[in-house]
Write a structure and sequence with these properties.
The protein is an alpha+beta fold and 267 residues long. It is built from 6 helices and 15 strands.
Length: 267
């Protein structure tokens, strides 16, 4: 459980590193499952892989395993998320950031909400470190308090041969001098707000920096599939209109989230 000070820090900084961390056994299971997923899907670049929890994901043509949902349903994680964004929780995505040793790409400064069809925009990302995260291997970097702008700033096109994302936040929207490094041990995690400005440098070290990220939204918001289809025409991944959603806790408060689409394919 989070303390009142933890909750205040999350809302103040837009990011929290909880005291809770995964056990060595659970961490080992996730690492082994990640290795199997990569072996089963050799066509996918390891820098970023989406939806490992789906038997088949049209986003990248991958074959995954529904047992990944066990991570998203891990009670200690959900208890903390509930304290931060409320009791009605919907998983709409998972992402692996492999950040391979020596070749892991730069992720430019950005806000996740620029890419997501959630209205009103609300989400918490649970960023779970599978490896130690250091400055040398390209740890996540963030601008504390930047979520308080409560909007998505102007993003511009990038040279995405060198960068993982097609768009980056315009430099006028934030102060890079205020950036902090997210230094984590394997098994630790960070939770951060959808409006938080963040990114990471390339990995030029000899150590991989893999992470699993859970994308969880409160069901007071709507995962707008029609908007997702439009976004998918220009920004990866292209499956926002068809991917299945998973209710983790509570009910669909807004009454607009379609919990059937995609499950006939995955189920």
């Amino acid at each position: 459980m989070l303390s009142e000070a933890d909750v205040r820090q999350y809302h103040h900084d837009g990011l929290l590193i909880p005291r809770y961390r995964l056990s060595e056994d659970r961490l080992g299971e996730i690492r082994e499952a990640y290795a199997k997923f990569v072996a089963d899907n050799p066509q996918v670049h390891r820098d970023q892989v989406v939806n490992p929890h789906l038997r088949y994901s049209a986003a990248q043509g991958t074959h995954g395993d529904p047992r990944w949902l066990e991570v998203a349903n891990h009670p200690p994680i959900l208890d903390m998320v509930e304290q931060l964004i409320g009791p009605d929780l919907l998983l709409w995505g998972m992402t692996f950031f492999g950040k391979p040793a020596g070749t892991g790409k730069t992720i430019p400064w950005h806000q996740d909400g620029d890419y997501w069809p959630i209205r009103p925009l609300a989400n918490i990302s649970v960023w779970i470190a599978l490896d130690e995260c250091t400055v040398e291997n390209g740890c996540l970097r963030y601008i504390p308090g930047s979520h308080k702008m409560n909007r998505v700033g102007r993003h511009i096109d990038t040279n995405h041969n060198e960068m993982l994302l097609e768009k980056a936040l315009h430099p006028s929207e934030f102060e890079e001098s205020r950036a902090r490094d997210l230094l984590l041990q394997a098994g630790q995690m960070a939770m951060f707000d959808v409006f938080l400005v963040h990114g990471s440098n390339a990995n030029r070290s000899l150590q991989r920096r893999a992470a699993l990220v859970l994308r969880i939204m409160p069901t007071t918001s709507h995962f707008d599939r029609e908007l997702g289809i439009e976004i998918g025409k220009t920004v990866r991944p292209p499956d926002m209109g068809t991917r299945p959603l998973f209710l983790l806790r509570g009910i669909d408060r807004c009454g607009l989230n379609d919990l059937r689409v995609g499950h006939e394919v995955d189920g």
